[in-house]
Amino acid sequence: MAFAFDPKDWHVVPERSFDELKVGEVFRAPSRTLTDAHASAFQAVSCDNHPIHYDVGYAKRFGHPAPVVHGLQVLAFTAPGATLLPHNFGSIFVAFTGLSVRFLKEVHAGDTLFSALEILSLEPRGDMGEVTTEVTVHNQDGELVLSGQHTYLLRRSG
Prior knowledge:
Largest sheet: 6 strands, antiparallel
Pfam family, one: MaoC_dehydratas
CATH architecture of the domain at 23-34 and 74-155: Roll
Domain MaoC-like: 23-137
Distance between the termini: 31 Å
Mean pLDDT: 94
Oligomer: single chain
Low-confidence stretches: none
InterPro entries: HotDog_dom_sf (IPR029069), MaoC-like_dom (IPR002539), MCH/BMMD (IPR052342)
Organism: Sphingomonas morindae
Protein name: MaoC family dehydratase
Order of helices and strands: EEHHHHEEEE
CATH topology of the domain at 23-34 and 74-155: Thiol Ester Dehydrase, Chain A
Number of strands: 6
């Protein structure tokens, strides 16, 4: 038996209302191993041509075991779209309104990164609501390499 397909009804996960979200929920991204190609692509996009990011000799002269992956590239691993979080928001999503971050450890090509977003707070603001998430990125050795927060503005009803 065939059903009528409507792309407007296509969802990766069911959309949820602001009131259905829960403090403590964790949204994980798949692990990703960085390569020199990733660093080169980010260097081209960001226009950050500092040799610490690509010159092995330069990096070693300044005490680094290898070129250091751009901090903003590591931050990009916390993009909400790398997880199912924005799919849960669906049509109630209004804006990504803020972020703060601390870079805690160096990242190098060959490192595998594991990022997660955990809902810390849900603040109703009239017909809108603000969601704050803690964002973390760990490496393959379990070391926390990045920590911070994101805030999002959502409609209270869809």
